[in-house]
Amino acid sequence: MIRKLLLKNIFICCLLMATALAGCLGGEDSDDENVIRLAYTVKDDYENPDSNPQMMADYIEAHSGYEVEIYPISSSNAAIEAVRFGHADAAFLDGGAAFVAWKSHGLEAILADTKSDGSTYYTAAAWVRNSSNITSLEQLEGNNSCHTGWLKSAGMLMPMGYMIGNGMVEVDGNSNDIESLRTTIENHFDVATIPESGAQYYGYSGAFECMTAGVGDVAFAKTSSYEDHCEGNDWCLARDEYRILEPHFGQVPSHPVMIHPGQIDDAKRDAFVAAMLAMSSEMWVEDYPMDGTNHTGCYSMTTHQVADLPQNTCGGEILKNVLENNGGVTTVTSESHLGTYSAAIGSIPGINEYFADKYGE
């Protein structure tokens, strides 16, 4: 009898413990459902406190109905892995990391930084002097080239990837070694100017000057290079002294926000996107004329009202301070945002191995 009572008590205790454990586990799942986690690099100290990602998290929490936490990461690869395995719901990546995340791990782009004109990309293109006999990309072979730098997107990866992928340039060397790209460039062009950082002709302005000065016959840059980097410089010529070769090489994407569609439910994703767009719809104004009065504060492009808020809590200011962008984001898809970029750089010899090493795979 005593033994039966003892066994019965043990059974009841085990049952209660199992129930309690199940309740705890269920509570954790429930908590996860109510939390948005953002993979982001966290610093011990911020020289500018407004650049702390917690500012962005607080805004999203106030506008989404979800708790928002920062999931600390130390690298782009860690951010990709966090989203890939469900430890975080979203990550903020650069173009190269986004290429890896999309093509290798199935992550999807849902938002992207906007530039001052509202676009989410710039277009890579080849520039020549208007007096040049070069009229097509095929005619570039054997001429002198000006690149913005080694492995730069618009100045090297996009043009070379596009031309390799379309059979205009033949790869010379090991197709799995990124250094084969240098050999390929040197063999395709007569003289290729590929400056290091800080050297003469480095960057967009440098590549354009390189071509203008006659050091190179073609400059690989972007379609807006004249307006962005040439006007106002003594070495520049009139706009009609230059022309862009067709076709363009494709779109170099701004930094996207990426999720794993299998790790985040639709309601949470939609709430997150809506909060990010709300942030983007706010801008700080000073002496803004409206209804016969000048206003200073946080202007909402949705309500057309100016709120009396601290500047660092205005949505556009948060995006500028935390993401270091132009103060705006917009919705995108992976194909629309990364498609032409991925198609071009995917043809670069050794690019997958290079990115695997860069992002620690």
How would the blueprint of this fold be written?
Layout: H1 2-33, E1 35-41, H2 53-64, E2 67-73, H3 76-84, E3 90-92, H4 95-105, E4 108-113, E5 121-129, E6 145-146, H5 153-165, H6 179-188, E7 192-193, H7 203-212, E8 218-222, H8 225-230, E9 242-244, E10 250-253, E11 256-259, H9 266-280, E12 282-290, E13 293-300, E14 306-307, H10 315-323, E15 329-331, H11 334-345, H12 351-358
Parallel strand pairs: 1-2, 1-3, 6-7, 6-8
Antiparallel strand pairs: 3-11, 4-11, 4-15, 5-8, 5-9, 5-10, 12-13, 13-14
Helix pairs in contact: 2-9, 2-10, 4-11, 5-11
Structure commentary:
This protein is of the alpha/beta class and 361 residues long. It folds into two domains: 32-115 and 254-285 and 311-335, D-Maltodextrin-Binding Protein, domain 2 (3-Layer(aba) Sandwich), CATH 3.40.190.180; 121-253, 3-Layer(aba) Sandwich (D-Maltodextrin-Binding Protein, domain 2). It is 41% helix and 20% strand. The protein has a six-stranded mixed β-sheet with strand order 2-1-3-11-4-15, with helices on both faces. Strands 5, 6, 7, 8, 9 and 10 form a six-stranded mixed β-sheet that branches. The chain has a three-stranded antiparallel β-sheet with strand order 12-13-14. Strand 12 (282-290) and strand 13 form a beta hairpin.
